[in-house]
From TrEMBL, chains A, B:
Keyword terms of this UniProt record: Acetylation, Aminotransferase, Cytoplasm, Phosphoprotein, Pyridoxal phosphate, Transferase
Self-association state and partner proteins as the record states: Homodimer.
Organism: Ursus americanus (American black bear)
One example of a Gene Ontology biological process annotation: L-alanine catabolic process
Parts forming coiled coils: none
Protein name: Alanine aminotransferase 1
Cofactors required: pyridoxal 5'-phosphate
Amino acid sequence: GGESPCSWHEKVLTLDTMNPCVRRVEYAVRGPIVLRALELEQELRQGVKKPFTEVIRANIGDAQAMGQKPITFLRQVLALCVHPDLLNSPDFPEDAKRKAERILQACGGHSLGAYSVSSGIQLIREDVASYIERRDGGIPADPNNIYLSTGASDAILTVLKLLVAGEGPTRTGVLIPIPQYPLYSAALAELNAVQVDYYLDEERAWALDVAELRRALCQARDHCCPRALCIINPGNPTGQVQARECIEAVIRFAFEERLFLMADEVYQDNVYAEGSQFHSFKKVLTEMGPPYATQQELASFHSVSKGYMGECGFRGGYVEVVNLDAAVQQQMQKLLSVRLCPPVPGQVLLSMVVSPPAPSDPSFAQFQAERQAVLAELAAKAKLTEQVFNEAPGIRCNPVQGAMYSFPRVQLPPRAVQRAQELGLAPDMFFCMRLLEETGICVVPGSGFGQREGTYHFRMTILPPMEKLRPLLEKLSQFHAKFTREYS
Amino acid sequence: GGESPCSWHEKVLTLDTMNPCVRRVEYAVRGPIVLRALELEQELRQGVKKPFTEVIRANIGDAQAMGQKPITFLRQVLALCVHPDLLNSPDFPEDAKRKAERILQACGGHSLGAYSVSSGIQLIREDVASYIERRDGGIPADPNNIYLSTGASDAILTVLKLLVAGEGPTRTGVLIPIPQYPLYSAALAELNAVQVDYYLDEERAWALDVAELRRALCQARDHCCPRALCIINPGNPTGQVQARECIEAVIRFAFEERLFLMADEVYQDNVYAEGSQFHSFKKVLTEMGPPYATQQELASFHSVSKGYMGECGFRGGYVEVVNLDAAVQQQMQKLLSVRLCPPVPGQVLLSMVVSPPAPSDPSFAQFQAERQAVLAELAAKAKLTEQVFNEAPGIRCNPVQGAMYSFPRVQLPPRAVQRAQELGLAPDMFFCMRLLEETGICVVPGSGFGQREGTYHFRMTILPPMEKLRPLLEKLSQFHAKFTREYS
């Protein structure tokens, strides 16, 4: 009370008073390494002399930032939707105009500027359902089970938010792979849920082993209530593509142990290795028949950020829910409505991704050529990465079967580990920092994704253009050799 | 568990096992009334006979859904950014091309398809800072204190998330106006914070009274730890524009009582009443000098969804933080990085909104004409709304000084109240449902925003086009008269 303000007082919001869950959040993909990379770029611009001329950001799966060109058809349709005067322009193909008109008809006020319904434009949800049906060999998908989102991250957070409950020993536990994409650990920290780690088997190309799932689950039951199992397939950061038998085993395990399945399938278009094939959890689950097909709860996520299109900045994505309790689904709908709607331009791009030009359409040939060029180059870069790294002593890289990252294991000399500990850094953070300072190559330390104690890795995207990738891989290998000598 | 699955088991995720905080969330703006409106539209399309020919959605502040045309310049620049081939087209003005090129230069890979930094494109944050400086008569704004967001809602949720801590009697309490925009109550429920209601004074045109703030605060201190105060100015759903003296009093109160200020200023362009003027909290706070200017923590929110542009679907917005603790600000930055970045097209539109064409630019005349036409029509509709409602017996409407809603008070006969209770409905929900069924007019019951016990209101936007608005207002007034007769 009183009218005279005291002359000084502490802030309301300090590290001590703020949300402790937020404090616990970590997100390595944009952590200290990336902040330092930004600084270095600025120093280079200011003319500061460095042992390199540019910083190469191989830290994040951002294809267009690495120079990949957008797919023409996607941008044509979006431009038409943004500025419908262009529908009269002779410079746009007829099929792009038809697509744009169809989408605008489905928008409030025939404009991208209106909110959509919270679950996303109905027409586009129908397009997504048709895509899923085609992808899964005719297994039906219901548009009412599809929710468009602000990138896949948003949808993953929404589903996790529904799952979080309890306190102390009844707190929700969520099984996530190690190594993982750190959205999961960050979201679980923020939501105050318990992260339950299961390890992928590096010796078997990052395979997922049900015995390891069982071990993780049993140990977790001592201190929390495990209720969900997250799978990333194709793997991020690990690049493996799961075999169908493995998916079946995971589904049986989830069913027996009563775990909600979350399948992060944003790299479903990114499969490179011969003999590897993407199998959706939805398809496998359905083909396994009852009780799995009729009872196992599943949420599957996809995005416009990855694939061949790489439209990260538009923040488009979706989740399909399967066997979700109807009342819970209403609650999910309500929760989404508070955010009003996902960004409409991202919805429009998603519509193109799931219903691209057909062979009879004027844009088909160009679309197909652009798409294939991107995917073929990614496949070549995946192979090159594995090959160059495996020629380097002290670096071992599993095959990059899919997604867009390598996650090589590096041997670090004991003296380097010791030096890192003196500096209060994870050994692989120390390695990656030195790499950045000396070569301009920005990759993310394995400790940001999780790894077996005593092993060290880094995640590097395969996205740099081919002409830059080979020298990059060689430079990195040479740096590792030099670093090893330095600390031997 | 053994290998043979049990033949049936309960879902993992049910109403009983899901996140209880999510269950408590309510969001009336897209609640049961709106779901029924959707059904009615479908019935009309199927040829079902109704006492009306179209559903009029006056429930949500969505200008373009109500037929408002996008501002040409905004869409030209965005189309150029989406599809840069258009930079060679003679159909776009030079200044739009310059703006688009400037933005593309600031994007990763010169494409909207790359992620931006998590706080938003640096150039656009600088544009926002310049806008704030102009708006506030030269008071400096630091781009590093500006975070672009997925609409204002996203930024509001982020700041609330930082503020939430404690349990039981130390749980964070947040003061919000009643009536409020239900994003606030929904977010507080989701975050498990305590909603502390302070009432706006309907008798004095929804004025905010510090004595009432103090009452609310004192009562709340018994059972929680109030740490933040939310202000919506201009008001939603109430349409008042706060006087400068009132803002000063609120700031003094917040400082003395150690409350973090959250100023929802998304309607800052929407001020209609003569004598009313928008004063930003940032400006008033700064002009009050120390200790307020140097210590009072503030977050101010803005959006591309409202104003004259009404670009809701793009989900653009920003928050400016003032006097935030540096370590907390780092935590905020980290939290945002988990979401990667706000949608880039929304960032682009925001850039246009904060740096529109200058008088010397070729697009200036058309831009200015379109902008003024929208704002002038809104002003006329605000006035008309107040006038028609106040001519109706049993309806009383405060002046719509700003924003885009009226929130009239309606008298409901005791027998109608009783009938509603029998049906398990809030009386104003009963009224609004009947209104929808009989006239096709969709408005939101006051109970969704909060109101004094025993009073009834509804929120109606002033967005329907002028030629529809007058008949709409009259139809609504007549329905109220009929409803009153029916239950007398």
